[in-house]
Design brief:
single chain, 180 residues, alpha/beta, Rossmann fold, 5-stranded parallel beta sheet, 5 strands, 20% strand
């Protein structure tokens, strides 16, 4: 089975996306995958300064937690990004991390499949479209990889509310079981 790296990007305590990520991970493990979970909570992520040194060295000139996360991303078969939707987009810390993964572009990265789990207070089908589009733009830069699937769990807002939404928990678990 695959080596799956799940990256939770919410910084909120008792985050709904984190609660659903736990169910996704349970599904992925039950499907036989080896799963590693990284949360951006408590991590230092500096903004990319656009120097492009990493395109020659495959290393970032900035020294923070993004360097270690990039190494984990590089060596995973499958990536899963979990993010709350803020103003119809991925979280700012997720976008910052994607920018900081630029050293992987010229590298011999291992990942081939990328998935996304999104949560939001709104429940209309269009809500995650811009976040998915943003991740698709990142994936498009890695020609050996593809955006393999997304799951949107809308209609949950208050911290911890997902713990009372069995249907959303079941969706996340089943989504985890479908990871390749």
């Amino acid at each position: 089975m695959s080596k799956v790296l799940v990256i939770s990007t919410s910084l909120r305590a008792n985050s709904n996306s984190d609660l659903l990520t736990e169910r996704l991970i349970a599904g992925a493990k039950d499907a036989g995958h080896e799963v590693e979970h990284v949360s951006l909570k408590g991590k230092e992520l500096k903004f990319c300064i656009g120097c492009l040194s990493c395109q020659k060295t495959q290393k970032c000139v900035l020294n923070d937690d993004a360097v270690l996360i990039a190494e984990k991303v590089k060596n995973a078969d499958t990536l899963v990004f979990a993010t709350p939707i803020y103003y119809y987009e991925m979280s700012g810390q997720m976008k910052t991390l994607l920018d900081r993964l630029n050293p992987l572009y010229p590298s011999d990265y291992r990942f081939r499949r990328v998935y996304m789990l999104t949560t939001a207070a709104e429940d209309e089908a269009f809500v995650p479209e811009k976040a998915v589009s943003g991740l698709q733009g990142w994936v498009d830069c890695f020609e050996k990889a593809s955006l393999a699937g997304t799951l949107f769990c809308g209609g949950i807002s208050a911290p911890g509310e997902a713990s009372g939404k069995k249907d959303k928990q079941d969706e996340a678990y089943e989504f985890g079981k479908t990871l390749e």
